[in-house]
Amino acid sequence: MQAFSLAQFVGAAARAAQLPPEEGPEVAFAGRSNVGKSSAINALAGRRRLAFTSKTPGRTQTINFYALGQGSLLVDLPGYGYARVSRELRSQWEALVGAYLRSRTTLAAVVIVMDARHPLTALDEQLLDWLGGRRVLVLLSKCDKLPRREQAAALKATRLRLATRAPEARVQLFSSITRHGVDEARALLETWLQGAEIKGPR
Ligand code: GDP
User: pTM higher than 0.85, yes or no?
Assistant: First the structure.
């Protein structure tokens, strides 16, 4: 059984050539910078500092790999959308993350963390386009910042907007602070990792 609580750092890749062999299955986490992706990974793993990001725009960005047991991997993709990053850094990000998402045969599912207050930015949509038919879980993060009625509205609106672009994507509310949705997300991801069959890009 894959256990998020057992996650152990195994390595990082700054270039496509440094990616570890495809042994998987893998679940990758993506999201705009500062959206709460590291906090979400830590909440799912029950750790305080498994994943952490430097807030310095411009540093080398890597894809980080964590073993979950039974050959499964958790993959932390570099965040996107720093307003201040150079064009060069952005194209490096696209080359690395694009290569990984388009070609990784052992990628069982992708979690896209979006801020519940501003879901589906243009960059989130670009990412969804790269994912084709892969399994996707959208976490609407920091939901504790919204009153309950607005949480429900954000969930409904995001599902509606995803209906054409990614009709099979699952969407749920999430908070690393209140732990809303943590157990539900972990259970779904563990099921997806166990359910061997990997859906590639369309
Ligand atoms: P990342 O850049 O996407 O990895 O984002 P981080 O996980 O580092 O979080 C960015 C900021 O948002 C930090 O100040 C966190 O404390 C805060 N944050 C993350 N998750 C939550 C959440 O669920 N609720 C609230 N209120 N703040 C959060």
Answer: yes
